[in-house]
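Could someone model ribose-5-phosphate with this protein?
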Amino acid sequence: MIITTCGNSIPIARRLAAALHATFSPLTISSFPDGDLYLKYTTALKGQNVIIVHSFQPHSNQSLFNLIFAAETAKDLGAKKVILVSPYLAYMRQDTRFHPGEAISSKIMAKHLNRCVDKIITIDPHLHRYKSLKDIFTIPAVKLTANALIADYIQKHCKNEVIIGPDSESFQWAAEIARHLRVQATVLKKTRFSSRHVQVKMIKPISIRGKNVVIVDDIISTGHTIAEAAEQAKKMGAKSITAIGVHGLLVEGAMAKLRRAGVNKVITTNCIEHSTNKIDVTPLLLRELRKEQ
Ligand code: R5P
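Reply:
Sure, complex below.
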């Protein structure tokens, strides 16, 4: 088994390789003077299972392109099987044509992966209008969840907490984590006006006064969603606010925005590398990859 990366997720790839006693062989990736992608394997792949560990952040577009080149090249060099381990799978939020003429990015991304990899393993993909990865993937597609790891983190680090999901889709994380912890949870109703303008409203109120509120979502991108939820929670008398995201994209000054909204702590998993990473997803991936040995 050969474990490689296309530039992202190097620490996870290294840890997986060490635990699986597999060869870790990162790709050489650069560009020609005109900007064309240059990619090279430095290990023989013939007859091997090649695991490409690669989150689609930072630089989701370049990440997809690098991955397609890496997977196609692995096949071309005689790899037996090419498995993509993508802790964060991008493009999943554009799962419909919200406005006439738009690309349904998730379907296009999946079409490319269906062609060039044999299997995909990912963590908490944004499944909203799709009910399962099978809706877009024809290859075996495994969805893992960090819910138990997040619940474990909350149990160790928080007290007297309630869980809030900032929108209806976050039910799959917030409610599940609250169930693990046996604490109260509620999910807010979000209205999205644009990718940078959202409003949230609590429709099933729970008592928040004096509580440590933990807001849980799959993705924290610009931070607008969590910031709105935090402001509501503050108004309702929350004692402290912790925001936990499986995938911390944290773009466009998200951290400052969250602080201004009263968020005391931002915690993420290492699906995407960031200074807020406190929850390690390697054990989840390891369990799944052991099945390939
Ligand atoms: C979308 O519904 C996701 O679950 C997140 O709520 C969303 O992507 C967060 O984006 P932002 O941080 O930009 O509000």
